Amino acid sequence: MVQEYINENKEKFLNELLDFLRIQSFSADPKFKNEVLKGAQFLEEKLQLAGAENICIHETAGHPIVYADKIIDEQLPTILVYGHYDVQPADPYELWDSDPFEPIVKETSIHPDGAVFARGACDDKGQMYMHVKAFEAMLKTNNLPCNVKFMFEGEEEVGSANLETFVRENTTLLKADVVLVSDTGIIANNTPSICVGLRGLSYVEVEVTGPNRDLHSGLYGGGVANPINILSKMIASLHDDSGAINIPGFYDDVQEVSPNERQEMAKAPFDVEYYKEDLNIGDVSGEKGFSTNERTSIRPALDVNGIWGGYTGDGAKTVLPSKAYAKISMRLVPNQKSEKITELFSTHFEKIAPSSVKVKVTPHHGGEGVVIPTDFTGFMAAKQAMETSFGKTPIPVRSGGSIPIVPMFEEVLGLKTILLGFGLDSDVIHSPNEHYGLFNFYKGIETIPLFYQNFAALNKK
Ligand code: BES
Ligand code: MN
Ligand code: MN
Fold first, then answer.
1. CATH 1.10.1610.10 fits 2-198+369-458, yes or no
2. Which of 144, 145, 163, 397 allows an S-S link to 138, with CB 3.0 to 4.6 Å?
3. pTM above the 0.85 mark?
4. Is 183 in the pocket of ligand 1 (CB under 6 A)?
5. Atom 20, ligand 1: which residue's CA is nearest?
6. Which CATH architecture group holds 200-254+300-367?
7. Cβ proximity of 167 and 96 under 8 Å
8. Which residue has a Cα nearest atom 19 of ligand 1?
9. What is the best residue among 181, 403, 426 to mutate for testing ligand 1's pocket, by most ligand atoms within 8 Å of CB?
10. pLDDT (tens digit, 9 = 90+) per residue, 373-415?
């Protein structure tokens, strides 16, 4: 019945997603505040049409949170669905093959059934919209087996600061038995997997100041410390020769993964030659003693996300700049605390600065990592749902990305989260030409009701 409804409404579902993707809801740029609001209003309308109740656009100090629910029976378990309708900025626009906010469907070698190309197609509008449509299919066919609460935010890509406040202030409203999120990925369309880990994040900006003004690089060069030269050297020193992060205390709280679990992880299919070819790199690189998969999931990483200073315009200008800047992200593993890491970084960075410069470290948003247990009913329900919809047992995998509110759900609401995502790494989220496979979109809509069914069966009260 549910599946029939989905089959009959495939086109409608897709067209609605395309409308959703036309809204330029980037949360980072205040000029687009109204577009983010439009994203919230779009959801409000669609939730209403789907049959949700208590729909509310909750204003925050930043972008709004959309809440809605459908409580059919207090005796039944409740699923809290979380997603984000904000997207990353689309620039650089010139690297897109089509307009990031005029979605088009195109076939690719990985997506022979077609994929929607648009900013947010996979992260996270396409994935969160699957939940609205799965809910509609269940309710319209009288097959909703659980209570459901929806909470969609417009600030995930900028750190979810106001969601945290909302959750803390609404613990009764948000009472549930499990959180369900589709904002991660699977290994491949014929290799389903369930994300059972996310990395934490500590993000800092550094400013290095040399002389009090830009100088003539001929008159002063060689005699005055150049903040860009110094910053480069300081950054280079943050890794040692074995590829490990060279900040005292950085690894103190890292949870080592047992040889057994590492062996299990190594069974997930991964082709390093394809990986290199796909990225057009001569070799992979990272911490000695760990595989690429391990380096990007169970080990921390430190990366410069941006670096600037001095003259970067056309031609040449001989200048010894006064300032240099960099944005640095540190991906953390479970048990590392982002605040502590930020602190360690700041202390270390100030300590290694020569007296010829001054440094300032400004922390940005952060978040903790998480590991999801595989021995509770939420995981079992998800595993069985994917087994049914894909015809294959999903592999549990830890991802390298971060969703900082997930550990917060556990801390504040006492709830575990199921990361039932359907994206592919090759969907290039955050990059130009982001896309989401139609196969993945429909597979998600098909799998979600199976999760509800299994979860209800496993949690009879
Ligand atoms: N959905 C992603 C995170 C993700 C993607 C996790 C794929 C696992 C697999 C999320 O929207 C995101 O981009 N998170 C940011 C952190 C946030 C604080 C800006 C990230 O990981 O950089
Ligand atoms: Mn996301
Ligand atoms: Mn994202």
1. no
2. 144
3. yes
4. yes
5. 402
6. 2-Layer Sandwich (3.30)
7. no
8. 157
9. 403
10. 999 999 999 999 999 999 999 999 999 999 999 999 999 999 9
